[in-house]
């Protein structure tokens, strides 16, 4: 009974209509979530068109990273997962100018996706 209920709810979620606030196509939000890249503070991609007024965006990203560097007698191994939940406020005060403030919540952990990727 439990499996049937979970399957029914999962199917209903997959068939649910997708609701969007705007009809404009925006680029996929791609960010390098490697812990070393995060030190640089690179911005995410966003639409170039400026709409007067304010726009609030909520996004979630999950990244699994693995990196090994060897140099002589030294080595560095990074293996983990980064989860980011961001809330952004973008305000356009002129047709050519806008300002954006992003409040991210970042969590670095060992991750739970390693068995899915390795197997």
Features:
119 residues, 3-stranded antiparallel sheet, single chain, 3 helices, alpha+beta, 3 strands
What is this structure's SSE topology?
Blueprint: H1 2-15, H2 35-38, E1 53-71, E2 74-94, E3 97-109, H3 114-118
Antiparallel strand pairs: 1-2, 2-3
- Structural class, by secondary structure, is alpha+beta
Query: pLDDT below 50 for ≥5 consecutive residues: which ranges?
Result: none
Query: Biggest β-sheet, characterized?
Result: 3 strands, antiparallel
Placed side by side, the strands forming the largest sheet appear as: 1-2-3
Distance between the termini: 30 Å
β content, as a range? 35-45%
The count of β-strands is: 3
- Give the rounded overall mean pLDDT: 78
Instruction: State the helix count.
Output: 3
Percent range for helical residues? Answer: 10-25%
In N-to-C order, the SSE pattern is: HHEEEH
Rg from Cα: 20 Å
Shape: flat
